[in-house]
Specification:
The protein has 270 residues and is α/β, with parallel strands linked by helices. Helix content is 27%, strand content 31%.
Amino acid sequence: MKLKEYVYMLGIKPAAKKYGYTVNTFELPEYGTVDYAQWLHPREKPKAIEIGPVQELKKFIKPGDLCIDIGAHSGDTALPMGLAAGPEGKVLAFEPNSYVFPVLNKNATLNRDKTHIVPIMLAAGTDDEDMVFEYSDPGFCNGGHHENIDKWQHGHAFELTVTSTNALDYLQKRYADDLPKLSYIKTDAEGFDLAILQNLAPLIEEYRPVIMSEIFKHTSAEYRDGMFAFFNDRNYSITRVNSETNLQGEPLKQEDLHATRHLDIICFPQ
């Protein structure tokens, strides 16, 4: 934890601050002009929309497919999914953070001839309730629900109350006709990923989507064993994410989830 983060944790914090966005334009082979709203938060790295990640996703996302992006943030992961699925497909982008949601919403309105992104200002959770998310800065850029992680360990001092929904119920009630086309789920929930996946287990077992998830750096050994068991019990292979243009890396064993402090995994139904 940095010195200023210790100070924040002691209660000496600046006021909350909101940031706007600018729309950048990229030229992609096959797609032509693609626009992207870049959040102007100083901690948000500039994002480039490139053809490589889209082509990689197209290995398992087909035109017309349904994708679910949990922890969609500004939309930088939803947009490549949307390009892969095409305007006849659909990306359900869950993001409860009211500070970044306007950027995600803007990205959902861009490129409508090429994508169909549905921004949802809810946390994909296990219950319909308010939840407290913790962030590392007053602009609420990096953070989430750090379940069973001590605040002095994660060091995120800025709290934001968000609205959560039982994701399984939400999807079954509102998108029942789309669910048979489910091909891809991405979760990025800072240690809450396992609870989300367990909630969505009936959909995962029925439709067998490819799943990309995060092993957050502060999660416990028990949590990591739980992640391995979740996929192993459902006959999924677990591999390390190499890069956005080479997602499927080496196969991982249970002990491998303990060997690296923080890693992204992508899991394939067998």
